[in-house]
Amino acid sequence: MKIFKRVVAVVISLLIIFCLNNILLLKSYNSSVLYGSFVQKRACADSIDGEKIIAIGGSATNLGFDSKTFEELSGKPCVNLAVSAGIPLRVYMKAADICSQKGDIVIMPLEYDYYDKDFYNVDEAYVDMVNVDKDLKCKDDLYHSIEYICSTFLRSFTIINDCMLFKVRDKLNTQNTIYIADSVDEYGDFYLHKDRTPVYTRVIIDTEFIYNDVTMNEIASFIDRMEQKGVTVYLTYPVTDIYRIKNYENYADDVQRAVESYIPKANIIGTPMDFAYEEECFFDTAYHLQYEYRKEYTEKLFSIYQNTAE
């Protein structure tokens, strides 16, 4: 009986700490990390009346897509919902769904790693994004629902450590990252890399393009579902230093061949090589375009998009 009471006491204590963490720390945490920028991004989308263009994807889109330029060229309001490639693809799909209406257009420049990820994975990034916006919670089966509950519970305790590190950083008056919540402009575009010295250096890697059949089918299903809603979805390729990949031409061909075997060509903008940029164009990773090259990339994307949409 004593052991049972102790177990119950421990469980109750943990639940209390869990609740206190969510009440006292979660808001502060979300206001500090990059994921928190989605709050402003969604506010941008929600403020637009009528038809609009929505960009979703990882940090290649967050840092590289110039919504203002695309809006000027297309004549339609444009908003950037992309944050990081660490966020599960299905979360972005949910974001596009809740922020779109009939007549809207969704553009998806997906980093190549997305195609090989477990589409239904429940990880820390998934939990963090749902903590930022509860509407981003995706429908899960029983197994993944239990996994989500467990991950949410454990995440509430690791957030304590993260918040402590933020406090130490603030006390020392150091800002060791630009990837924070308050990092986007009125279009939802990341801008803190503006006027920053680039540090990217190309490193040649030997890799092959790998994709997950389930993920590919889910992308195709998403396009179909949105079409039924009256929203057109275009899949495209990310701006990247593809030349860092050994045998990059074969890699690009493999990507294009795989994508076109699942996705109708009418819903695909360009080819991988259309958005290949040289080493000197990137900021700190092979997917993070320097601020100064955003306009050039976006104009090229629009030109190819225009030909596809006709």
Structure report:
With 310 residues, the protein is mainly alpha-helical. 47% of the residues lie in helices and 6% in strands. The protein contains 11 helices and 5 strands, in the order αααβααβαβαααβαβα. It has helices at 2-24, 26-30, 38-46, 59-64, 67-74, 89-99, 124-132, 142-171, 213-229, 248-260, 294-309; strands at 53-55, 78-80, 105-109, 232-236, 268-269. Helix 1 crosses helix 8 (142-171) and helix 5 runs parallel beside helix 11. The radius of gyration is 21 Å and the shape is globular.
SSE topology sketch:
Elements: H1 2-24, H2 26-30, H3 38-46, E1 53-55, H4 59-64, H5 67-74, E2 78-80, H6 89-99, E3 105-109, H7 124-132, H8 142-171, H9 213-229, E4 232-236, H10 248-260, E5 268-269, H11 294-309
Parallel strand pairs: 1-2, 1-3, 3-4, 4-5
Mean pLDDT score, rounded? Answer: 90
End-to-end CA span = 74 Å
Report strand %: 5-15%
Task: Specify the structural class.
Answer: mainly alpha
Number of helices: 11
Q: What is the H-and-E element order?
A: HHHEHHEHEHHHEHEH
Spatial extent as radius of gyration: 21 Å
Q: List the uncertain runs.
A: 7-11
Largest sheet, described in full? 5 strands, parallel
- Globular, elongated, flat, extended or rod-shaped: what is the shape? globular
Please tally the β strands and state the result: 5
Q: Based on the structure, what is the oligomeric state of the protein chains?
A: single chain
Output the strand order for the largest sheet: 2-1-3-4-5
Can you give the helix content as a percent range? 40-55%
